[in-house]
Description:
mainly alpha; Arc Repressor Mutant, subunit A; single chain; Tetracycline Repressor, domain 2; 10 helices
Amino acid sequence: MRVVKQAEERRNEILDAADELFGLKGFDGTSTNNILEKVGIARGTLYHHFKSKEDIMDALIERYSDRLLSAAQEIAIDKSIPVVERLTRVVMALNISGGGSKEMMEHIHKPQNALMHQKIQKVIVNGVPPILTEIIREGIQQGMFSTPFPYECMEMVVIYANTLFDDDDMITLTNEERSSRMMAFIYNVERLLGAESGSLMDVMKMPGSI
C-alpha cells in the first residue's frame, strides 16, 4: 500500500536524510540516488520539493538559521535571566557553526559556495541585531548601558564579529592575533554601549561567539 504523506512532512524527511548523508559521506560524496534510497521515494517526489541537491543544502541552511534565531529569541525574552547573562546565552545560541554538521559548515565556506555563505551571513546580519537590541534596551533602562543608538551598535557589532571571526579565511589570524582582536572587540563594544569597563568580558570572550 502506497504511503501518502503531507508535503511538509515529506519535505522534512528529505532534509533530515540529506543532513545525515552530508555528514557521513560529504556533500560531493552524496548523490540524489543516496537520498532517494534513504527516504524511500521516487525521483519525481524529490524534484517536486527540491530542484537539485544544492537546493536541498540551501533549505538546510535556512532551517538551521530559523532554529538558531528562534532559540536566541526565546532566550532574549526571558526576563527572569539577568541582562548580561542573557546576552551571553543569546551569543552562544547564535553560534552558527554549532547548528549543523561539520561537513555542512566546510561546504558553506568553499569558494564555489559563496552564494550559500552570503545567504547565511544575510540571515545573521538581518536577524541578530533586533534580538540583541531588545536586551540592550533593557540594559539601558537598568542603567547598565548608555547609548542613543542600540540597534546601530548591535548591527556594527554583528557585522564586525561576523567578518573577523567567521571561518571563511577572509582574515587569517594566529591564535595570539585572534585573542588580541577579541580583547579589542570587547573593549570597543563596551564603549559603544557606554558600559562599565570589563562588564561584558564574559559575554563575548567565548569560543564561537556570534
